[in-house]
Amino acid sequence: MTAARPDLLVDSPHARVATRRLERALPYLLVAPVMIYIIIVLVIPVLIEIYYSFLTREQGVYAYHIVRKFTLDNYVQVFAQRYILESLAFTIGISLVIAAGTVVLGLPVAQFLARGTGRGKIFVEMSLLLPLFGDIFTGYALLYAFAPQGIVNWFLVGIGLIREPLHLVNQPISAVIAMMLPSLSVLLIRGALARIDPVYEEAAQMLGANPLRAWFATTFKLARVGVAGAFLLTFIGGTGAFTIPVILVNADNGWISTQLRGLFLDSNVPLASSLSIVLTILTAVLVYVYIRLTDTRADVQRYVG
Amino acid sequence: MWGSRWTVLVGRRLIQVYAITAALILAYPTVQLFIVAASDDIVFPPRYFSFTAFNLDKLPTLLETMPFSIALGLATTGVLLALAIPTSYATQRMQFRGRALASAAIFLPVIIPGVGYMVALGTAYILVFPDLIGSFAGVLLPTVIFNLVWMVRAVQSSLSVTDPAYEDAALMLGASRIRAFFTVTLPAIAPGIAVGAMITFANSTTAFTAPYFLGRTTALTTTVGIFNELSRNSLIPRLAAEALIVELIVMSFVVAAYLMARKRFRGLII
């Protein structure tokens, strides 16, 4: 984007060359600060982490220390240590439950926002934004709601479903419920549903399908890539979750992120580093799948030919 | 046909009721905090009302950590404004070799799990700058990284809906590139910048992971302070009052951003 400036037309050749050089260097000068920041604060620490993941931790006289002896043992340990594998399996399993629950519970809300008529849309939309910036407050509030004297137990006892209050706090179920509350996923599904022309659904109904079947066969089917994207994004969020499990369950909650913190506090930096790298690779693969899934150009190719 | 139409109408109404119920459940946590804070009691239904929990003298965690939280929010927003506006402008409006790489690098923090990144940064701090642990700068550096994507996306989405023809016209009329940017483009993308700044402020004021890992006892946000108090004193009503006050301060920023530029905000989230 180089626009001809009248003042440059009367400039000397030297000035023109200098201006052209500056124009060419300008984008690099503009992105340089953020790139330098990312390199210093993110890339270098991660490189140090990769380096440490190949070092050996040895028992000294008073404490463990790290020696510069190259080993792959830390990566073997990630997949051999029973408690790490159990924690990984627990995290992946619980994240699948959270992602599935979030999508199923969020679909009707997304449908209302994308197609619904009537009052309440702005209220629903604004309420969905609340947890995005205040999920930590949701965590604190749910501690009171899930307490034996809280509203959830009061309600369940009141309708006669239970006789004694349930101990929901300090249990993984409380974190699962908190993370299943509709939020970002609903907005993503809303975006996917809104892009589908309702004329397909109307045509299916005209041809005799009942409204639910018509919706599944047309709108949902065409928006399934967006729905899958929302599922994947929620799953990624679940695997990396730290704050909500720590607040609602405890600091030793079985999530892999808590194990990672425990290893770091235990000064087992090589094993913590290798586990972190494994998790990063897993997340990168999932993000890549998400990008491919939600790539609009791929969408067009898929449907048009 | 009439039966089908009736089914559609009932279905729509049911979905509306479901969505509004879901919204009420989402809004309930704030109400729950208010109920506990205003009754100074964790029992539901509340047995009495009292505003003693809001007495600031009885909220030491809030008074101790709020200045740090606000300072962290302001500093993170300031650093991100300085970093994100030029980068967004270059990646959105200019063609250059390495543009795709620069755009991808901004999304790196999304790929690396937060706790994994804290292990990496914690190790780097211990090895190179041990003084950063427990310091304001030590918490600020990763908080900027965590919020980088939000700010860049906000500015980029604002730039994408602003016609570059106006800036080109200013350049053609003899304005320098810097003058054209500050007098034409910057005012046009101001709503997007405001939205990004408010989201960043809200996120960084309530930051948890970075101060919890790297803050020790000297660099803590209010959210971590409340958590530490929870660990020490179990579930007491005072915590609800503290959380509610912080939430109201932060949410007022978010709601203001949303009302200011609703359409841009929506594009930013999706």
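The mean pLDDT of chain B is 87.
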